[in-house]
Amino acid sequence: MHSDNSTEKISWKMSRWLSHRKTGPNEKHGATTTRSLNTCGSSLASQGPSVVKMSIDGSDAQIWDKKRQNALIEGCYKSWQAGRYTDIKIIVGSQTFAAHKLVLVSLSDYFEPLFEHDSNAKGEITLHNIEPDIFSVLLEYAYTGTINLNKDTVQSVLIAADYLSVSNAREACETFMTMNLDPENVCDALQFASGYSLESLWSSAVEHLKKNLPNVSTTSNFSKLDPKVLVTLFSDDSLILSVKGVSLKSIEREKLILKTVLQYLSDRNETDPATLGMVFQTARLVALSKDEIKNCLKKFKHLRKNETIMKYVRLRDVAVHYLQQRDQDCSLTVNIGGREAEEIPDAWLRRRKLAKHKFIAGRGRYAAGGHVAVPQGPPRYLYDDPDLEIERVDIWIRRWDGRPVIGGLALTYRPYPTVDQEEDGETAGPLQYCKGHCASESERDHFSVSLNPDEFIVKVTVSSGFLIDRLAFMTSSGRTLGPFGGPGGGEHTEETPEAPMSYLYDINFDEVVTQGSFAIYNLMFRWIAFE
């Protein structure tokens, strides 16, 4: 380490070298140029005087001395602590604070007009709407640049900083609140951010709520949230909710929103029809089945009997019918749904976005060597709706050259209202992808496995040669399904990609008639991964 004197010498030596530098051919005498602090080295800039601006020929220079800057701040602080040279008194409530006008003017534009209009020349001003202990925090910040905050006082300090136009202190308070969000205080933070236009705090609080809604909704502060704030949150088409770090898909997301708004309205003992309707309709009921809505309403007897709530439950049926008819008549040349359709909330006719996701093709194609049939490229996939989930896998076994192979394969997807439309009170059959020989005279040749709700296939093992010989699956709950088929062919394994949530989305393949019956070949897995 250099002493202060040696540091100054090094800095000034550098300046002297610059002043004796020869003028270049394209440089005019007396011209100036601005140099960054790195001209003299970053270490020198923090320890002693440094050149920040110099004429091209070195005859003039502007020197920055950080120690002088620090001495000025320290001198003001020591004078304030000792009560020396103060020239203004600030009366806040029952307390009086002595200060320096120059320091207060440097703190905020709020004070200069007050000093200019101090016509009685008493050398004192009075501040209203601020508590003495809160003003003390800001006054210390004015002299030290340090602001002392805690969870109990941060909102009061921010309000005072906002009132006195101390923008840096206001930002510091907002940052502190953002760093200390938790399920207990996030609703209060949302209210506060909304009232004081704190965009950073608002965004962070919204993200916290999205990731912790089940925990947040059980706190006492949740029911105190302004209904308009809740409506703003739940009306967002891009609303992504997650539980334990996993993003919810359409049905589970709307189910959580419905349960949350019902609990919110119940805890508030809400009776105002306008508020009931405004909040309740944020749950997009068209994404849920009648049974799911009924189950959610079970524990809220008084809401189940409320006319406003029941109106929207009935409108859900109208909306589902409207969507059916709209899909059939895209031109909308016919008045669909009648007068009731006019009351359907616009948001119900739109599907919310899911979390960012991507489809990922498997590592290879199996039984695609052209020995039985020549494939015309990868197999075509039928669906690309990220809401779909495999619910059941059916496998039919046949014999080929005297050994068992897979003759047919069917995937059945979980039904949900936006795809499996309801007709006359009944739900249409679920979506299915089926190819090959999907029938068998013997039960021994047919295998069917079903996945539980929230259970997904995360690993597959396939054995293949000329055809697909065998398949086996492992699920997210640890179950092993299979193997199904014969012992032939080479064995290959694929697993779900690394992601917060990922699983097998579909299996695509082609069918071929060989030795008098169907078989499948050119098989490819496709995975889906959510961020």
Automatic annotation (TrEMBL):
SMART domains: BACK (SM00875), BTB (SM00225). InterPro entries: BACK, BTB/POZ_dom, Jacalin-like_lectin_dom, Jacalin-like_lectin_dom_sf, SKP1/BTB/POZ_sf. The keyword Glycosyltransferase does not apply. Keywords: Kelch repeat, Repeat. Residues 86-151 form the BTB domain. Gene3D superfamilies: 1.25.40.420, Jacalin-like lectin domain, Potassium Channel Kv1.1, Chain A. The keyword Protein biosynthesis does not apply. This is Kelch-like protein 20. It comes from Plakobranchus ocellatus.
